[in-house]
Amino acid sequence: MLAHGSSAWCLNPTFKMKRKLSSIQRPFLLHISGAYCTTTTAALQTILGIPPLHMQLQFEARFTSIYRLRIPLPPFITRTQLHDLEMKATSWSTDPSEHLKPNQISFEDGEAYIGRRDIINIFTDGSKTEHGVGAAFCILTNDIWAYQWSAKLNDNNTVFQAEPTALHEAVIYASHLPNHNTSKIHVDNRASTMASSNSKSTNETARKIFKILLSNPRIKVSCVKAHAGNISNERADQMENDATQHGQPYSHTKLPKPHIKGLFRKRMLEEWQTLWKNGDTGRRIYNIMPSVSLRPTNWIREDVIFFSQHGPFPAYLKRFYLSDSDYCSCGGIGTALHYDTECIYTVSWHMRKPGQTSNKNG
């Protein structure tokens, strides 16, 4: 509810707005942590790994502005251009009456077609490793490797983008083959096959594949088990692994949505870290946790009270000119707070001596 319309009112929040959002967030932080109500909001946010509310809403506003509203952001936030982002496609890619033939897309194992010499078998693969993102396909004709293609994608691309990219390039190659040749493209990723067979897919690459298959019924796509000992599929897998390091750069695949979200999340953490470092509250917690993180600590309620020193601790009581004692002037045994030798407050677990009557004014 709070994030509704945040791109219109929280892209550049004012100081008054930040304070209002902080007052809304504070009760939730207190209830989650179980800390004393005097514990600072900044300390609770760091302990629980929850950024300030205005930063979370600003994160949503920035993402909506650039990804949905197509409004460029200042360079100090991100240097990513609008034309570099992969956008979600809308509406139908073709007329609803047009659809693929039943035998063009098969989700069953297509290994039985590999041995046939009257079919051109094409094997595709894509993956993401610590070295980068790669896509490749190879063609087997009469037990001879007739052609192979590989490319290195942007390191920020995802594996789901690499798989459709390899399938898209394979479909383009098969569409230029003579009309009397039947091509069978084997894909070891079921998700990309399903996306390519859906005319309402929101992926632009999947829509391009669908249109090419629609105009070329002789091209068929089927699934094949990955790492099942198939020599042809293993060759395609080896090619895309090599492409992650030595492949030709491929710039047609745009940056995915998780990439821009990661940039904004990193920016939010940097701003939160600066606010936490330069703040004037929660310094006791800052000495223990100088860096902020989205991961909460494993502290229980007693740990939060102890490390924040907001509770029955001398360092906290001295702020109010109070001291703790084992005995109360009313005769009770337990923890009592005194001011000028007069009992002004006794904690809930205050105990009376045997036979002593209750002193309501104690």
From TrEMBL:
Annotated GO MF terms: nucleic acid binding; RNA-DNA hybrid ribonuclease activity
One Pfam match: RNase_H
Domain RNase H type-1: residue ranges: 116-245
Signal peptide per UniProt: none
Protein name listed in UniProt: RNase H type-1 domain-containing protein
